[in-house]
Amino acid sequence: MVFTCADPKGQSELNRCAFEDYHRADAALNAQWKRTIAYQRKLDAANFTDQDGMPTWVDALTRSQRAWVAFRAAQCNWEGLDMRGSARTELEGECLARTTRERTAYLKTLGD
User: Fold this and answer.
1) Smallest Cα–Cα separation from 33: which of 9, 66, 5?
2) In a domain, 1, yes or no
3) Using one digit for the tens of pLDDT, what is the confidence trace for 23-44?
4) Cα separation of 22 and 49, whole Å?
5) What are the residues whose beta carbons fall under 8 Å from the beta carbon of 104, sequence distance 6 or more?
6) What does pTM read for this prediction?
7) What is the CATH number of the domain that holds 22?
């Protein structure tokens, strides 16, 4: 029998499909991150003066992204608690995919 996420059989396949979806979403996020951070670097080059004591666009966005990664992990761990047992993995994977797609959409608004 050939495995397909179009017709998963059992919890282990549902878990696997949820994480395959997350990995696709994460790849899209990483691609968008490269475009967005490149745009932020251009903003820094055009506007940043070291005299104002403010962080650069790149520094601020990098700190924001790191905090978001920690938030995503905690949020999806919490959402997974709705199901105790093997289905918890599926819920966490679905959350990771969803929140990652949301962050990707947000990053697109910051420059491409």
Assistant:
1) 66
2) no
3) 999 999 999 999 999 999 998 8
4) 39
5) 25, 28, 29, 32
6) 0.88
7) 1.20.1270.180
